Amino acid sequence: MERDLLIQEVLRLKAERQAVILAHSYQLPEVQEVADFVGDSLGLAREAQRTEAKVIVFAGVHFMAETAAILNPEKTVLLPDLEAGCSLADSIRPEDVLAWKKDHPEGIVVAYVNTKAEVKALADVCVTSANAVEVVARLPKDRPIFFVPDMFLGAHVARVTGRKLDLFPGECHVHAGIREEHLKALLEKHPGAEFMIHPECGCGSSCLFLKPDAKMLSTEGMVRYAKKAEAKEFVVATEVGILHRLSKEAPGKTFIPVKPDAICEYMKRITLEKVYLSLKEMRHVIRVPEEVAKKARRALEAMVAVG
Ligand code: 13P
Ligand code: SF4
């Protein structure tokens, strides 16, 4: 089907199904353009909780659709491609959390939302990159804390809050690939640019050493910052899908990807055609068993309540 017709059909089916399309900022531009809401993990979780639509088409990856399903047990959540996974969410198993809990019966488990529902169900609270610092800073000071699964985000949170965190050695293959040498090269080429860095990046603390005024931001934080900052040129260290939103929402400014091949193949599995098929055939419904969802919901609601 040709593109304009596909867009028309998506919009028609969306109305017919009383559906809403929620898209992550790393989605293909064509998918972002048909979405009702485009945002980061936190914004999407909040929007999924707020929407009155009967059906949520989740243009993102599996753990995000699961989060929406956990927060909305009465709604139908669709993921247009079941292969849209996440290397970070795959890096940790429930057994890893249980082993730590056994050794730390008084401990607190903080789970990044980039985890499967079974891992969230074992956590006390969830976080996203947008609120991890705030959530961790509020935790009791006299109990051990296990931060899972992203070690780079965990190290960033430990540095900013001054809290001691046990870190799980997980990483996102896209962000872990963004390293000190990439930043160094861009710093030499664009000495006047502002640097916006996602805390999942593998450059970790070395980027702050190279560029002490670099901003560590979630994807939404980058859009917000770029809109209000006076600078005209920004170096962006995250998945390149964010550039579509940045150029659209902060026109007249220049955004330079620190690594142009930082592409999440899982996010890119969702195409306009798959969104159309998802609405047409009501596929693929994401369901989380209620005994898991009930526990995971507690940790997610504890997160959504902050800020
Ligand atoms: P945020 O959208 O929360 O910044 O997370 C980035 C990410 O990697 C999501 O998969
Ligand atoms: Fe997962 Fe990384 Fe892709 Fe985000 S960018 S969905 S963390 S693999």
TrEMBL record:
Iminosuccinate binds at residues 24, 41, 112-114, 129, 198-200, 219. Its EC number is 2.5.1.72. Pathway: Cofactor biosynthesis; NAD(+) biosynthesis; quinolinate from iminoaspartate: step 1/1. InterPro entries: NadA (IPR003473), NadA_sf (IPR036094), Quinolinate_synth_type2 (IPR023066). Keywords: 4Fe-4S, Cytoplasm, Iron, Iron-sulfur, Metal-binding, Pyridine nucleotide biosynthesis, Transferase. It comes from the Bacteria. Binds 1 [4Fe-4S] cluster per subunit. Pfam families: NadA. Catalyzes the condensation of iminoaspartate with dihydroxyacetone phosphate to form quinolinate. Belongs to the quinolinate synthase family. Type 2 subfamily. This is Quinolinate synthase. It comes from Thermus antranikianii. The gene is nadA.
